[in-house]
Structures are given as structure tokens and as C-alpha cells.
Design brief:
The protein has a domain at 47-142. It is globular, with a radius of gyration of 16 Å. The chain starts with 10 loop residues before the first helix and ends with a helix. It is mainly α and 144 residues long. The chain is built from seven helices and no strands.
Length: 144
């Protein structure tokens, strides 16, 4: 399995490879489950949203909705943990200079605040939506 860097464009492939390695080590013999998880990894890495994220009042109940919501749960962390996430993210994009990183990151974060729902599932939205929005807004402020 190769190491992955954001600039190389192989993050999705590296994540899929890592999962397949885990599935093999865990003797996960059900090809359909492995394929479903691979598809969820690819979806989460490429779109990060569903119609339920973009539609006010809509909720998702499929695996993909929970998968993306779990992936986004870092946004609803306590601020100390969120700051660690911010540092790891900045390190991951170390190939960008500060201005490039701040502009790109700010655009990405603002896009989260513009959609009606960061979380698609009812459980995640009711528990974490407000905190996630507050953390994202606070991070945007740190990028100014």
C-alpha cells in the first residue's frame, strides 16, 4: 500500500487499499460487504454530500448518509480536538503556501455553511449540526 498525499490525487485509492487490506486481515469473506464499503469510501471522498444534505427538512437513512455523517463528525468536536484537526489538515496541505491554503480552506468551509444541512441523518443533525456550524464559522475566522 502506498502513502498518500493530497497533491498526488490518490487519497481515495489509498483509503480503498487500506480498507481492502483490513478486510483481508479480518478475514472478511463477504465480497458484497467489501464492495459496498469501497463504494461508500469513494462516495464520501468525491461528493461529501447527498440530496438530503442539500434539501431543507430532508433526512437520509441509508448507509451512505451515516457514513458521510460519521466522516463529518469531526466538525462537531470540542474546540480543542477541532484545533488538532485544523493543524492536521494544514499539515496535510503543506505543499500550499499560507495564502493559497487559507483561500482554498475558507471556500470549502463557506460551502458547508451555505448548504442547509451538514448532517443528513436525523440523529446526527439534531445532535451535532449547531456545534459543527459554530466550529466551521470559528475556523473561517481564524483564516482571515
Amino acid at each position: 500500500m502506498k502513502n498518500s498525499e493530497p497533491a498526488s490525487g490518490d487519497n481515495v485509492e489509498a483509503g480503498v487499499d487500506k480498507f481492502k487490506e483490513f478486510a483481508q486481515q479480518a478475514s472478511l469473506d463477504q465480497d458484497s460487504i467489501v464492495q459496498e464499503v469501497v463504494e461508500l469510501l469513494q462516495l464520501a471522498a468525491t461528493t461529501n454530500s447527498t440530496e438530503e444534505h442539500k434539501t431543507e427538512g430532508a433526512y437520509g437513512e441509508e448507509d451512505k448518509h451515516y457514513f458521510i455523517d460519521i466522516n463529518f463528525s469531526i466538525f462537531a468536536s470540542d474546540w480543542e480536538k477541532y484545533e488538532e484537526f485544523m493543524e492536521r489538515t494544514r499539515h496535510e496541505y503543506g505543499f500550499l503556501n499560507d495564502d493559497q491554503y487559507k483561500n482554498l480552506r475558507r471556500k470549502i468551509l463557506q460551502s458547508f455553511l451555505q448548504i442547509p444541512n451538514i448532517f443528513a441523518t436525523k440523529e446526527f443533525r439534531s445532535e451535532y449540526e449547531q456545534v459543527a456550524r459554530e466550529n466551521i464559522a470559528k475556523e473561517i475566522d481564524t483564516l482571515s
